[in-house]
């Protein structure tokens, strides 16, 4: 065994997570998901596959939803990260979408839930900003907010797997906050 | 059975008690216990399908930064011989299948552990392997047991009766290997304190993990603590401990540090069990009026060389239909493959796909409505055992489902409903799953402030155990629900059986009910009353106890792309008393969605050359996603059954998957006129079928 850190393999990054700044020396191989879970003990973001295939690790990076298991932490200097722990802001009250998930029983085991929540928040912003999806009417005027019917929600949320099969309830919960 | 609950909490759609923790990210799962000094372990999977490890070169791995150890079969802690051979990891040089643990790297961080595992050089003495399941494989044999029942059941003269039947169906259905893929990978955090072991693990049964691990490490059970507060799904694959628990405990012992091991997603298909592939031959003989004269259900499946696991798919034919002549048998072939195990509704999901598809084929051959055909073959008693059913309302499920779905007036002709390039069809299938129960202990404590605490080492794998057990307790105590707190998921609590076979709530709930009933009747026995249902819950029942259901599906088949889109899915269930309307609904629909995956998207292959699953990750093994799932309706009929347990409940975690695949397959036949007999119904197969039909 040798020492845990070797020069040239670590760099310092500063990022804001849920409003708080953190400066860390990170292994160049460390992905944002592991930075959150291992360095900051923010374990709300889940590791389902570590390969960008399940969405359980979805967080908001500068307002965009991204799979945190695919982002090398060292590339994120200066980024603003929001995780499931930060969705509700500082207050005691959960985010309206978190409340809707509770009201609709939009989860069972809960392991995909943080990713579904962050993804939905990001998705709502994308639709509001006029991003089309695969099922958006090609004739719809570009740049205008996209109305989210069920096929739109389903299409846009399809990067977030739920093996418990809470999909119908998740869609209803999202509809509740539109 | 005495005593039924009378309060208002049972059946109410109470909100999940841990819900707030789950939606805020506060709920901790097994890999998320950052104990001081915690390290990470990463397995090195064997790269050959059969052979012996001749050398493990760990030098390059050990030279990497942060690496603490590489455990091999020569220096890993020696275990007592396990009953479950899949747990005998790092105990010898033999490699029984590709992906078997060949070594284990331990390092300060997950990245370092992964790099170390990759740097380990293993050399093998390779032996020829055989990973290909064929129906006439010379190594095949008839197992004595399949799913706890005799491997073979037979009465009458089924072969002769079938040969002489006026209407006959002789068909073979195939299901590939399928993977549980719970969203939380199998993970354990292990810590030793002297000779005391603490495990934070993702399991469906902490009490079982404790007894298995205590035996393996030769410890008194009280020296093993198992914590499983939140479990990210299991679907059978976390029923008994898997190698993660053993490897984490070994690594922690070896390094003297707490260790977390989370199996990488790509390893899960190999190391946690899979639904074994089945080839199922169904022969149905019938009178022209639809009454069965013979039912033969013969299943061929595989198991590993590590242990015998039989996918007991033919068992359903011993329950479903009245027939004067029956054969239900299994044939299992041991191969050099990963060990199969339980996956949601083991045996039943596979068996009912084949049986209910064949019944649909028979309806077609008879020119009879498939709902009507099922009604005509209702048995009065359970066919093989001759026992009366404690309750059986499959007829009511079929009738209610047909009414809700708008089945009446359905044109039975296949391949005639067109919408542009689409062909539309509807299908039906019945479902069954046994209502099982095991002994459990539980305690109920009356607190001075008027509240109560119910304790039982139940596992909440997403079923809402905390919530429903509080409901059972509140009614038994005769107090409002908010006065009851539940503690689950820790071996300091009264021992309990695992959440498996849809028996968790019945088993734990019975003990909770008994403790609370006694505490309410005899407060002087308090403040804490303990109950043990041994001798009651496991007493022989004179009744055949099963849940039933009916599935209806509408599918649209795209004749240009071969894609199948599900338009509607309806499930109606008769599963005893429903204890929480909200969480029950979620379990029924969730299982139906897994059934949709089984029918349409989920497929794995055992590569004969490599002896492993190429579709090992979630990019290649397609679990259903949001876009695959239409509006799904699940409901139940009120069923009052006093022969089950004090709550009158049957398990609900599995029945929802059972009939889904057959209902969808039958809908696809109704749409296209083509009978596809191999799952899943992927576009390539549909297109090939449509093309060959066109050429005819
Ligand atoms: S863990 Fe990142 S997508 Fe699965
Ligand atoms: S709630 Fe279990 S995976 Fe979605």
Written description of the protein model:
- The complex is a heterodimer of chains A (178) and B (696).
- Chain A is an alpha+beta fold and 178 residues long.
- Chain A contains 5 helices and 5 strands, in the order E-E-H-E-E-E-H-H-H-H.
- In chain A, a hairpin with a 2-residue loop joins strand 1 and strand 2.
- Chain A starts with 9 loop residues before the first strand and ends with a helix.
- By secondary structure, chain B is of the alpha+beta class.
- Chain B has 16 helices and 26 strands.
- In chain B, the strands form 6 sheets. A 7-stranded mixed beta sheet of chain B has the order 3-5-1-14-11-12-13, with helices on both faces.
- In chain B, helix 8 (348-366) packs parallel to helix 15.
- The longest helix of chain B is centred in the C-terminal third of the chain and has 20 residues, at 581-600.
- Chains A and B meet through helix 1, helix 2, helix 3, helix 4 and helix 5 of A and helix 1, helix 3 and helix 13 of B.
- One FE2/S2 (inorganic) cluster sits between chains A (107-113, 162-164, 166) and B (183, 233, 462).
- Chain B: Residues 1-23, 131-152 are annotated as: Disordered.
Name the strands of the widest sheet of chain B in spatial order: 3-5-1-14-11-12-13
CATH class of the largest domain in chain B reads Alpha Beta
Query: How many extended strands of chain B?
Result: 26
> CATH homologous superfamily of the largest domain in chain B, by name?
Aldehyde oxidase/xanthine dehydrogenase, molybdopterin binding domain
CATH homologous superfamily classification of the largest domain in chain A: [2Fe-2S]-binding domain
Number of H/I helices of chain A: 5
Query: Total number of β-strand segments of chain A?
Result: 5
| Alpha carbon gyration radius of chain B | 26 Å
Beta-strand percentage range of chain A: 15-25%
**Helical/strand content category of chain B:** alpha+beta
In CATH, the topology of the largest domain in chain B is named: Aldehyde Oxidoreductase, domain 4
N-to-C SSE series of chain A?
EEHEEEHHHH
Mean pLDDT over the full residue set of chain B: 96
CATH architecture of the largest domain in chain B: 2-Layer Sandwich
| Structural domain tally of chain B | 3
The unreliable regions of chain B are 1-5
- Tertiary shape of chain B: globular
Query: Roughly how much helix do the residues of chain A carry, as a percent range?
Result: 25-40%
Termini Cα gap of chain B: 61 Å
Quaternary organisation of the protein chains = heterodimer
Question: Which residue ranges of chain A are poorly predicted, with pLDDT under 50 across at least 5 consecutive positions?
Answer: none
């Amino acid at each position: 065994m040798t020492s845990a850190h070797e020069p040239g393999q670590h760099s310092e990054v500063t990022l804001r997570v849920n409003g708080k700044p953190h400066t860390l020396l990170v292994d160049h191989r460390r992905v944002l998901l592991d930075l959150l879970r291992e360095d900051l003990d923010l374990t709300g973001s889940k590791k389902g596959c570590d390969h960008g295939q399940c969405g359980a690790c979805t967080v908001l990076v500068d307002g965009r939803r991204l799979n945190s298991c695919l982002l090398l932490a060292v590339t994120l200097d200066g980024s603003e990260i929001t995780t499931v722990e930060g969705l509700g802001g500082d207050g005691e009250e959960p985010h309206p979408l978190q409340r809707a998930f509770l009201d609709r029983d939009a989860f069972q085991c809960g392991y995909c839930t943080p990713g579904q929540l962050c993804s939905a928040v990001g998705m709502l912003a994308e639709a509001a900003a006029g991003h089309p999806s695969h099922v958006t009417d090609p004739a719809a005027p570009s740049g205008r907010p996209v109305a989210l019917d069920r096929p739109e929600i389903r299409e846009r949320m399809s990067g977030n797997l739920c093996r418990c099969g809470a999909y119908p309830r998740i869609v209803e919960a999202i509809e509740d906050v539109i | 059975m005495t005593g039924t609950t009378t309060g208002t909490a049972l059946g109410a759609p109470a909100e999940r008690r841990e819900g707030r923790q789950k939606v805020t990210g506060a709920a901790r799962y097994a890999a998320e216990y950052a104990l001081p000094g915690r390290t990470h372990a990463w397995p090195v999977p064997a790269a050959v399908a059969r052979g012996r490890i001749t050398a493990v070169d760990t030098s390059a791995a050990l030279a990497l930064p942060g690496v603490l150890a590489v455990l091999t079969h020569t220096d890993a802690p020696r275990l007592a011989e396990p009953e479950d051979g899949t747990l005998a990891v790092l105990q010898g040089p033999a490699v029984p299948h590709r992906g078997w643990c060949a070594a284990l790297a331990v390092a300060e961080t997950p990245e370092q552990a992964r790099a170390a595992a990759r740097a380990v050089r293993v050399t093998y003495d390779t032996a020829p392997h055989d990973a290909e399941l064929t129906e006439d494989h010379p190594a095949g044999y008839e197992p004595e047991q399949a799913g706890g029942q005799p491997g073979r059941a037979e009465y009458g003269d089924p072969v002769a009766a079938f040969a002489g039947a006026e209407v006959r169906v002789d068909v073979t259905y195939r299901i590939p290997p399928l993977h549980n893929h719970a969203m939380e990978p199998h993970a354990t955090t292990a810590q030793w304190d002297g000779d005391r072991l603490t495990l934070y693990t993702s399991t469906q049964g902490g009490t079982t993990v404790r007894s298995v691990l205590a035996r393996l490490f030769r410890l008194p059970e009280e020296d093993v603590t198992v914590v499983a507060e939140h479990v990210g799904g299991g679907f059978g694959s976390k029923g008994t401990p898997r190698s993660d628990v053993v490897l984490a405990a070994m690594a922690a012992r070896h390094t003297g540090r707490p260790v977390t091991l989370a199996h990488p997603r790509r390893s899960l298909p190999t190391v946690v069990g899979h639904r074994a592939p089945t080839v199922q031959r169904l022969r149905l003989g019938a009178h022209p009026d639809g009454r069965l004269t013979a039912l033969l259900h013969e299943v061929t499946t595989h198991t590993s060389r590590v242990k015998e696991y039989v996918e007991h798919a033919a068992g359903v034919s011993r329950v479903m239909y009245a027939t004067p002549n029956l054969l239900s048998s299994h044939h299992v072939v041991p191969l050099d493959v990963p060990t199969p195990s339980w996956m949601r509704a083991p045996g039943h999901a596979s068996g009912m796909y084949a049986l209910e598809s064949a019944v649909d084929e028979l309806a077609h051959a008879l020119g009879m409505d498939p709902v009507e055909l099922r009604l005509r073959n209702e048995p009065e008693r359970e066919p093989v055992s001759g026992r009366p059913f404690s309750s059986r309302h499959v007829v009511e499920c079929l009738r209610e489902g047909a009414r809700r779905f708008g089945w009446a007036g359905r044109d039975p002709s296949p391949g005639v409903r067109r919408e542009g390039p689409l062909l539309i069809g509807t299908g039906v299938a019945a479902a069954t799953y046994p209502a099982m129960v095991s002994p459990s202990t539980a305690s109920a404590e009356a607190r001075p402030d008027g509240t109560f605490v119910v304790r039982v080492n139940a596992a909440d794998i997403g079923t809402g155990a905390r919530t429903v057990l509080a409901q059972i307790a509140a009614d038994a105590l005769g107090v409002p629900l908010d006065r009851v707190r539940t503690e689950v998921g820790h071996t300091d609590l009264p021992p309990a059986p695992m959440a498996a076979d849809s028996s968790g709530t019945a088993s734990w709930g019975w003990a909770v009910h008994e403790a609370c009933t006694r505490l309410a009747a005899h407060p002087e026995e308090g403040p804490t009353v303990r109950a043990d249902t041994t001798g009651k819950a496991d007493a022989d029942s004179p009744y055949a106890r099963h849940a039933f259901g009916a599935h209806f599906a509408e599918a649209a088949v795209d004749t240009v792309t071969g894609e199948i889109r599900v338009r509607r899915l309806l499930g109606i269930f008769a599963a005893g008393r429903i204890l929480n309307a909200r969480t029950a609904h979620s379990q029924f629909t969730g299982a139906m969605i897994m059934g949709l995956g089984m029918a349409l998207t989920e497929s794995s292959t055992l590569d004969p050359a490599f002896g492993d699953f190429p579709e090992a990750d979630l990019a290649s093994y397609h679990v259903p996603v949001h876009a695959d799932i239409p509006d799904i309706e699940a409901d139940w009929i009120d069923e009052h059954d006093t022969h089950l347990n004090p709550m009158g409940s049957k398990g609900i975690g599995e029945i929802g998957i059972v009939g889904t695949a057959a209902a969808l397959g039958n809908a696809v036949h109704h749409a296209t006129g083509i009978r596809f007999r191999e799952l899943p119904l992927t576009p390539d197969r549909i297109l090939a079928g449509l093309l060959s039909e066109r050429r005819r």
